[in-house]
Amino acid sequence: MLNPVIEKWRAITSIRTFLAVLALGFMAGCSDASDTSGPGDAEEQTEQSRAADAPVAVVVGTAQRQSVTRTISATGTLAPKRTSDLGSLVDGVISEVMVNVGDHVRQGDPLFRTRDVDFQHDLASANATHQMSLAQATQAERAYARAVQLFEREIIAPAQLEQRETEMSVAIAATAQTEQVRNGARQRLADTIVTAPFDGAIIGRFVDEGTYMSSRFSGMGSSAVVRLAECQIGIAVARFPESELTSVHEGQTAQLYIGTRPEPMSAPILVVNDAIDVQTRTGELRAPFLNPDCGIQTGQFVRVEIEIIDDDVLTIPQSAIINAGLGQRVLIVENGHAVLKNIEAVSIDGVISRVVSGLTANDTVILSPPDTMANGVAVEVIQQ
After folding, report:
1. Per-residue model confidence as pLDDT tens digits over 94-106
2. Domain boundaries along the sequence of the chain
3. What angle in degrees, to the nearest 10, is found between the helix axes of 117-152 and 158-190?
């Protein structure tokens, strides 16, 4: 007879074994019920895997060297060919300003006048003094002529003749001096009226009648009465980037788009200033244009466009460029795979771009690559 303890242990073991077998059977039944995949599903997964590994069809272009025409432009202002700040030539009060801003004048036209009463008095006094001097000189000349006659007749001594000669010389010298004074007074009176030194337009009027002006004119505007501009010839002034100035030369034609005028004006480039502004890295360009009726006012904005022909430039279609936060990039085809490259390029006309760096001639670039195309993915060229 077995020990009761052993009998109890065997009973427990038998129950555990039964429960384990029952559980395994249940799990096997669940597995059979849930496994509904067949041979067709496995084939579908294989096709999906093959599709993921298949090359991506791409359309490509080629980096090539060619001559390209492009247009560079910059905004500037219109300036007159020359300007002149005109101030009073004599000290005094401005009695009349004959012009206003916008008036067109011809060379020699009066612009403004300084009160001239004192200058008229000065001229009258100088005239009187000069007339008196002339009379004295005439009298001295007659006295000398008479002295010569008396000396020849041995009526007067040589010393008396010399005295008359000295008196005549002094009188003649005085006449020259008073004539100089008279001419100065005449010029100062004439200077009370300031005239236009050239044809042009008044672009500034700084004082009104009754203002005292000094003849010590600084030419800096503060002492000017009016500002005159030669408007028959205007100058378009614009600043272009340093990198573009090397393609521009004097004598080249620029197109000037002025204000709201529908048609541009052609103007030859007169000056290309190579002095580069260290802050903006730009240089100045000047192009003169004819403005015979002064209808185009200075100070207006102007857009200056210049057509540039670049020879032997490396270009690619602009659609190949990926503009991302990391800069400009392209995908090129190498050994059947897409390879990402960083480049630097400048758009020429919105269709092609000039490659500055990053590519070489005959590189094959992918056009309009999808954003999801990864570096190194297999590709198949379907059109070039």
Report:
1. 999 999 998 999 9
2. 1-31, 56-68+312-383, 72-81+231-310, 84-227
3. 160
